[in-house]
C-alpha cells in the first residue's frame, strides 16, 4: 500500500492546504500489522521501539524537520526489507527483488549525492533512501524527501537506467528545496532539475554521454510538439490551468525539456559554466524553503548579473523571458549545444543507414556493445522513419536480435513502437508481454495511442490487452487508457 500526493491528491490522505505554495514540517507515528513495515518521506526516529496509546509496539516513528509542500508527504506499508547501498542510503523492496535492487543501486547513489552537493550545495535532508514500487507504479520516480519512489523497470542488472535516481536526487535542490508556487510554474521544478541532472551526469560520465541523453530528451519533446501542434497551449512553459482542471492532466514533456532549454539559454547568456554553477548555488541559497514564480527567478538572475541586465537580455526580440519563453507556444527558441553527442551517435547513424538503405553489403555492428542511450537513439530514429521497407524490417529482426530480447524497459518500449508503426503483427506478443509487465504512464499511453491509430487488427489487440491488464493499472493510467480506447465516450 502506498500514497501518491502529486499533484493535488493528498487532500484525500489528510487535512492540508494542498498547494505547493505552502510548506510545513511533520511527524508521524504509524502502527501497522505484524510482519509489515512502514516508511515515509521523513527521517526514521524509531522502528518498532515506540508503542502507541493502545500499547501496540509495531509502530514506526518519523520526523521531517525541513519544511515541505503537502504533495511530498507519503506513506508506504508492506512486506518490505532494506539493504544498505551507501553511507546515508538504503534501498527498500519486497524480499524477492531486494538483492537485485541492492546490486543495481549499490556504489552509485553516494556518488550522485556527493556530486550534487559539489554542484548545488549541502544535501539538507539527512537520509536518502529508495523504495522500489510495484510494477503498476505510474511514474519512473517520485522525489519524496528522504524516500524516493522508483519503478522496478529501472532494475535492469547493469545500472543503465539509474539516471532516474540522479533526476530524483537533483529534486533535493530543485523542486523540494526551491519549489514552484503553483502548478502553472511546474517548469521551475522540472526544467532546473533536468539541467541539474545533466550537470551531475556530465561530471560523472563526460559531456558526450550527457549530450546523448539530452538529445534523446529533446527529440522526445520535438515529437510531442509535432504530435499536439505548435500552437497547443500545453507547449507553453507557463501553463494556464483553468478552474476545475486537474494539474496532472497537463503533464507532458514541455516543462522538462523546454524548461531545460531555457536554463541552458540562461547559461549561454552568462557564457561561463563555473559562473553559472555559482549562480545556481546562490539561487538555491536565496530561495530555499520557499515557493516561487518565474518572475522571482528572472529578477534574481538579472540582479546577480547586472551586466546582463544593462544589456536588456530579458527583452531581446525572439528570446524575451516573459513573452517568448513563458507565454510562447511551440518549439524552444534556443537549442542547446549538444554536438558532443556525435562521438556516440556517429556509429549509430552508420547502422541506421545500413538498416534503411536499399543495397546492403556491410555486416552489422555488434550493437550489444552500445550504451542504452545509443540503442534508444537507434530505435527512435527508425521509429521516426517508419513505416520501413520489408527488407529493412527483415534486416532489423534478423541482424539485431538484442532489441527484441532486451530486458531494458526503455528499449522494449521503443521496440514495441517500431512493431506497431510497421504492422509487424508476428511480433505483437512483445507488446502484450511489455504491457503486462509494467504500468508506467510514460510507456503505456503512447503504445495504446499508436495502436488505436494503426490497423483494425492492432486496435482489437489493444482492447484485448487492456482488458487483460486493467485491474493491474494505476487508476490514473487506467483512466487515460480508457479515453484513448474510447471506452468512456
TrEMBL record:
It holds the Pfam family Peptidase_M1. Binds 1 zinc ion per subunit. It is found in: Cytoplasm. It comes from the Eukaryota. One of its GO terms (biological process) is proteolysis. A peptide binds at residues 4-6, 138-143, 440-442. Keywords: Cytoplasm, Hydrolase, Metal-binding, Metalloprotease, Protease, Zinc. InterPro entries: Aminopeptidase_N-like_N, Aminopeptidase_N-like_N_sf, ARM-type_fold, LTA4H_cat, M1_LTA-4_hydro/amino_C_sf, M1_LTA4H, Peptidase_M1, Peptidase_M1_C. One of its GO terms (molecular function) is zinc ion binding. Its main location: cytoplasm. Its cofactor is Zn(2+). Residues 343-485 form the Peptidase M1 leukotriene A4 hydrolase/aminopeptidase C-terminal domain. Zn(2+) binds at residues 167, 171, 190. The keyword Cytoplasm applies. Belongs to the peptidase M1 family. This is Aminopeptidase B-like isoform X2.
Amino acid at each position: 500500500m502506498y500514497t501518491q500526493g502529486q499533484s493535488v491528491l493528498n487532500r484525500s490522505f489528510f487535512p492540508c492546504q494542498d498547494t505547493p505554495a505552502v510548506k510545513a514540517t511533520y511527524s508521524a507515528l504509524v502502527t501497522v500489522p505484524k510482519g509489515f513495515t512502514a516508511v515515509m518521506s521523513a527521517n526514521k526516529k524509531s522502528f518498532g521501539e515506540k508503542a502507541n496509546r493502545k500499547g501496540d509496539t509495531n509502530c514506526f516513528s518519523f520526523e521531517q524537520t525541513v519544511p515541505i509542500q503537502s504533495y511530498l508527504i507519503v506513506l508506504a506499508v508492506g512486506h518490505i526489507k532494506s539493504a544498505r547501498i551507501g553511507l546515508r542510503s538504503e534501498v527498500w523492496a519486497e524480499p524477492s527483488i531486494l538483492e537485485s535492487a541492492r546490486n543495481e543501486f549499490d556504489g552509485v547513489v553516494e556518488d550522485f549525492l556527493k556530486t550534487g552537493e559539489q554542484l548545488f550545495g549541502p544535501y539538507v535532508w539527512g537520509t536518502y533512501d529508495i523504495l522500489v514500487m510495484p510494477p503498476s507504479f505510474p511514474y519512473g520516480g517520485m522525489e519524496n524527501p528522504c524516500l524516493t519512489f522508483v519503478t522496478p523497470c529501472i532494475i535492469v542488472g547493469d545500472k543503465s537506467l539509474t539516471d532516474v535516481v540522479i533526476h530524483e536526487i537533483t529534486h533535493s535542490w530543485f523542486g523540494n528545496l526551491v519549489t514552484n508556487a503553483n502548478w502553472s510554474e511546474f517548469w521551475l521544478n522540472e526544467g532546473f532539475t533536468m539541467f541539474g541532472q545533466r550537470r551531475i551526469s556530465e561530471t560523472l560520465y563526460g559531456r558526450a554521454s550527457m549530450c546523448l541523453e539530452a538529445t534523446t530528451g529533446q527529440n522526445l519533446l520535438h515529437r510531442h510538439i509535432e504530435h499536439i501542434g505548435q500552437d497547443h497551449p500545453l507547449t507553453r512553459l507557463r501553463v494556464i490551468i483553468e478552474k476545475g482542471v486537474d494539474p496532472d492532466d497537463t503533464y507532458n514533456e514541455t516543462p522538462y525539456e523546454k524548461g531545460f532549454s531555457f536554463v541552458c539559454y540562461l547559461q549561454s547568456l552568462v557564457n561561463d559554466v563555473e559562473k553559472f554553477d555559482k549562480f545556481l548555488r546562490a539561487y538555491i541559497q536565496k530561495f530555499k524553503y520557499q515557493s516561487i514564480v518565474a518572475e522571482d527567478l528572472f529578477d534574481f538572475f538579472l540582479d546577480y548579473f547586472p551586466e546582463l541586465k544593462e544589456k536588456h537580455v530579458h527583452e531581446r526580440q525572439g528570446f524575451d523571458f516573459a513573452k517568448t519563453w513563458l507565454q510562447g507556444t511551440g518549439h524552444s527558441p534556443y537549442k542547446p549545444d549538444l554536438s558532443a553527442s556525435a562521438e556516440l551517435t556517429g556509429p549509430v547513424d552508420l547502422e541506421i543507414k545500413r538498416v534503411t538503405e536499399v543495397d546492403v553489403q556491410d555486416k552489422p555492428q555488434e550493437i550489444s556493445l552500445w550504451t542504452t542511450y545509443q540503442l534508444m537513439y537507434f530505435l527512435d530514429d527508425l521509429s521516426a522513419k517508419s513505416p520501413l521497407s520489408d527488407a529493412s524490417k527483415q534486416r532489423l529482426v534478423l541482424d539485431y536480435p538484442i532489441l527484441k530480447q532486451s530486458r531494458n524497459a526503455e528499449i522494449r518500449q521503443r521496440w514495441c513502437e517500431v512493431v506497431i508503426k510497421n504492422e509487424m503483427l508476428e511480433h505483437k506478443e512483445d507488446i502484450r508481454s511489455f504491457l503486462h509487465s509494467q504500468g508506467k504512464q510514460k510507456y503505456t499511453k503512447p503504445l495504446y495511442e499508436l495502436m488505436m491509430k494503426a490497423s483494425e487488427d492492432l486496435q482489437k489487440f489493444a482492447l484485448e490487452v487492456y482488458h487483460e491488464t486493467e485491474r493491474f493499472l494505476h487508476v490514473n493510467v487506467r483512466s487515460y487508457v480508457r479515453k484513448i480506447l474510447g471506452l468512456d465516450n
